[in-house]
Task: structure prediction
Amino acid sequence: MPRYTVFMYHPEDQRTPDEAQLAAELAEHDAYAQEMAAEGVMTFGSPLAEHTATTSIRAGGLVDGPYLEAKETVVGFYVLDVPDLDAAIAVARRNPILHQGGGVEVRPMTA
Result:
């Protein structure tokens, strides 16, 4: 069955400073992950550490922090085993980050 990685993005200038709101948003993501697991479509998923913890490797050596300046950063990802791109998009459209100010990117995986 084809596999797709769904990357979750969030604008840097829209971080949730309120701890209670952040906890509620994370609970939504946990519930969504449980739904995908129960449906048997998600094989793995994970939030990522803050983008400032990034170490980029280039031909010239290591660069602390993200290599590019971006208005949105990748905050997490998950891997889907679904029949086709349409099914991957249908699952990704339910992602709570879409109503939390962020977005998703669905990308086919190669062997």
Notes: The longest helix spans residues 19-39. The mean pLDDT is 88.
